[in-house]
Amino acid sequence: xxxxxxVDSLDNVPExxxxxxxxxxxxxxxxxxxxxxxxxxxxxxxxxxxxKKQMDELQKTVSSIDLDKYNExxxxxxxxxxxxxxxxxxxxxxxxxxxxxxxxxxxxxxxKITGERDTLTQQLEQVTxxxxxxxxxxxxxxxxxxxxxVLMRAKSTFxxxxxxxxxxxxxxxxxxxxxxxxLSVEGWVKGLSESAPHLFANSSGxxxxxxxxxxxxxTINRSNFNEMxxxxxxSFVKDGGKVVD
Length: 245
Fold this sequence. Notes:
Layout: E1 6-7, E2 21-24, E3 27-30, H1 38-63, H2 67-87, H3 91-139, H4 147-155, E4 158-161, E5 164-169, E6 172-173, H5 185-195, E7 219-221, H6 222-227, H7 230-238, E8 242-244
């Protein structure tokens, strides 16, 4: 018979297959490597659509600034004050007034535009990184319920450089073992299967398995531990892993 990806109970599931289902949100989800439920896919797509709309609205706000109207008001105020100074013969004060007004206006506009640009850049970078990590995680067996956890880990690890997501440990890039090439998103996600196997769905092979709670009694020998990058080592220890000689 065909197995259901999600069931309300295990009553109609052969007992031999019970171990392949994990409880999530009151239901039982079949642990298949690379499988993501339709609800999660829809959620990811809707989140991307919402972020795109927010970015479009922000861009519209920037483009809708009426600089001509603003300049018209400022100019009228300056003309009135300038006329008064000319009338009183205060030419030096008039020159100082115009210079200060132009400088203040330029600095204010520059600060506003720079702030809006930085905000848009940060949002675009985060969306790009999230999409890259999410796609790789879904393709490499991360449990649907653990995608958000992986994205949170990635948020503090990856930065966008030349349009590519690069992992960092503090200010230093993380490299692939034995090379000077930055660790890829896929390499980082696959590393989680060693340092945080509870993030991955069950599989019938020798890969990562998913448990309802944190892993217990997980050990790794010293040579394999040394092959991990610094971020993977920290995550492994944080998740209760132990190194044995």
